[in-house]
Structure to design on (634 residues):
């Protein structure tokens, strides 16, 4: 069977085009922007399941909602810092909610043993909050002000950015 | 921060928690995407590694000991860096003389046992722009009679929520070849390559990659140390290895990785089709099974099968003293099998230790089709030791 | 040619939208194609010195004085 080089290159281009078309045609490719207001949610707490945490409980507080997983490399750095921020500002009305997206509970346990935290941890078993907020990367964090509005979205986590993040949290805490 | 003022002003214009459509829109417009996008393939942590590779051919042939050091690091928010250095020390003999004097084909090793070295250094810098990247790389490999320098560039584009990555690249390689014992003779070769590939996430447990590469080379391809001595009837021919001065090739490699959640195992299957202007067609299939045994230990057996046809100008006897012709077994028709096993241990999040060994055998009869007649069986074994640390 | 068409069909048929938070399995080091760049390079160099075929893994590999 003769295989012409030109034909193969042509076929490869067609393959790329078909693949992209096929993927675009499949449902559920989300847009980028999250909603302006935090949608209502009710998620089970990891440590106290089946107790849940919901939007009403965040009322009047500044919330940092962090989507994390044991396999997310930057989460190893973000967790100790988040815990420190929570301890520092909880009296002033700062809340951290870590929404876990792991598929295996054993891995969650192992991660939390190495990086223990005192803030609320939940699961999102039906991807409802992740879908509503349009999470496009891991980790992704949403800063919510005292009125339930989404003020910023942070994708990824780098230790160089913690100073700026802390300033953002402070400025939201200072607002009524 | 101006956006804070804007967003606050927008919400104060309406009742909190029940913003009017206008306020919502204003707030959304003022919403900053303070992004450090997590890109597919971006280096997230600094990694360094040390490797030791040991290779030994049977029957007094080549033995190589090769230490390697490498590093991968994010240098800035949008810049990644990679480097690798290898030093091979080579000892032993390689086939130099193919003769059918006694009737049967005999491959004779070079008389002197050599001691040689090879040094290689590779550098690559990657610049990220949103979810796409551009890389520039350089690779230099040098031996006492051979210098190879490569410059390469490649770009990667992410599509569809990073489920699809399209890569394209190009490279240029210049080789300078000299001969031991002939200090005034210098040969050159220039090769160009282009490459394109797609990596696609098929499911939470599956990823598929398919790459197409074309290379075109012009210049010196001969193995200047090899000769063929042919006794044909009453005539004797001494032919020095000579190959065409151009070589074009196509490689199509497809790789698949599948995760089995019930076993925690990662299965890999690779297939490569290759053809070139020297008449060589080959297929390669490689299967690997990574199986964790505990939270620390994993084992990975591997099986690889390779088959190639002979170059159009390959022959164990050459009825001429000039013209294109080669008896290099590397250009013969044969099949090859590799059987290997790799054991690895992960300590904490940061350290990985690997130890592996494999056996590689080439035989004419293992070719998918007819193998070259009188091809000696080739046998080699390798072992490796590797340590990787993440920071 | 036939293998090529089969591959196209497989790719298209299996085209799913996997969300970023569903990539835990894919993030495992053993699911990377070449978790150790040094090992991958050494193996490719070994095979390139003993076989006629090479390449397909990416651009920029070094040359080998082994024709």
């Amino acid at each position: 069977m003769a295989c012409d080089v030109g034909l193969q290159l042509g076929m490869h281009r067609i393959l790329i085009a078909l693949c992209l078309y096929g993927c675009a045609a499949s449902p559920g490719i989300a847009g980028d922007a999250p909603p302006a207001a935090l949608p209502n949610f009710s998620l089970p707490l990891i440590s106290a399941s089946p107790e849940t945490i919901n939007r009403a409980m965040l009322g009047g507080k500044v919330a940092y909602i962090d989507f994390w997983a044991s396999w997310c490399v930057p989460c190893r750095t973000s967790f100790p810092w988040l815990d420190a921020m929570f301890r520092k500002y909880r009296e002033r009305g700062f809340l951290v909610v870590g929404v876990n997206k792991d598929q295996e509970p054993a891995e969650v346990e192992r991660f939390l043993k190495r990086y223990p935290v005192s803030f609320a941890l939940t699961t999102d078993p039906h991807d409802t909050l992740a879908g509503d907020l349009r999470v496009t990367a891991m980790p992704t964090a949403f800063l919510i002000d005292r009125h339930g509005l989404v003020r910023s979205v942070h994708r990824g986590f780098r230790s160089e950015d913690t100073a700026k993040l802390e300033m953002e949290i402070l400025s939201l805490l200072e607002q009524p | 921060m101006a956006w804070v003022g804007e967003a606050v002003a927008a919400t104060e214009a309406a009742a909190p928690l029940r913003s009017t459509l206008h306020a919502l829109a204003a707030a959304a417009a003022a919403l900053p995407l303070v992004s450090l996008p997590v890109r597919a393939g971006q280096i997230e942590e600094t990694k360094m590694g040390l490797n030791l590779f040991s290779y030994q051919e049977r029957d007094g042939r080549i033995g190589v000991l090769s230490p390697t050091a490498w590093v991968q690091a994010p240098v800035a928010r949008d810049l990644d860096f990679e480097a690798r250095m290898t030093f091979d020390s080579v000892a032993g003999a390689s086939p130099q003389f193919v003769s059918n004097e006694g009737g049967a084909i005999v491959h004779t090793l070079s008389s002197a046992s050599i001691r040689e070295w090879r040094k290689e250094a590779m550098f690559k810098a990657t610049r990220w722009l949103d979810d796409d990247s551009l890389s520039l790389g350089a690779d230099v490999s040098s031996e006492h009679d051979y210098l190879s320098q490569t410059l390469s560039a490649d770009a990667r584009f992410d599509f569809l929520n990073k489920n699809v990555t399209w890569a394209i690249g190009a490279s240029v390689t210049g080789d300078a070849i000299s001969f031991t014992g002939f200090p005034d003779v210098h040969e050159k070769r220039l090769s160009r390559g282009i490459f394109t590939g797609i990596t696609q996430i098929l499911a939470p447990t599956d990823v598929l990659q398919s790459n197409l590469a074309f290379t075109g080379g012009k210049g010196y391809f001969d193995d200047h140390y090899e000769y063929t001595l042919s006794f044909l009837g009453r005539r004797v021919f001494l032919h020095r290895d000579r190959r065409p001065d151009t070589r074009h090739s196509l490689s199509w490699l497809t790789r698949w990785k599948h995760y089995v959640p019930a076993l925690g195992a990662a299965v890999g299957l690779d297939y490569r089709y290759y053809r070139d202007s020297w008449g060589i067609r080959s297929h390669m299939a490689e299967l690997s099974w990574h199986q964790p045994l505990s939270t620390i230990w994993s084992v990975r057996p591997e099986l690889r099968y390779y088959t190639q046809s002979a170059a159009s100008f390959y022959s164990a006897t050459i009825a001429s003293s000039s013209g294109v012709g080669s008896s290099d077994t590397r250009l013969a028709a044969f099949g090859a099998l590799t059987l290997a096993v790799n054991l690895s241990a992960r300590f904490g999040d940061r350290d990985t230790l690997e130890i592996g060994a494999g056996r590689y055998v080439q035989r004419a009869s293992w070719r998918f089709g007819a193998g070259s007649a009188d091809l000696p069986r080739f046998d080699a074994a390798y072992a490796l030791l590797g340590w990787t640390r993440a920071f | 040619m036939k293998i090529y068409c089969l591959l196209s069909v497989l790719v298209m048929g299996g085209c799913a939208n996997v969300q970023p938070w569903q990539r835990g399995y894919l993030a495992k080091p053993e699911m990377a194609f070449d978790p150790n760049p040094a090992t991958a390079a050494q193996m490719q160099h070994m095979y390139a010195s003993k076989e006629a075929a090479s390449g397909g893994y990416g651009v920029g590999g070094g040359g080998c004085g082994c024709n």
User: Anything to note?
Assistant: Residues 31-174 of chain A form a domain with the Glutaredoxin fold (CATH 3.40.30.10). The longest strand of chain A covers residues 62-68.
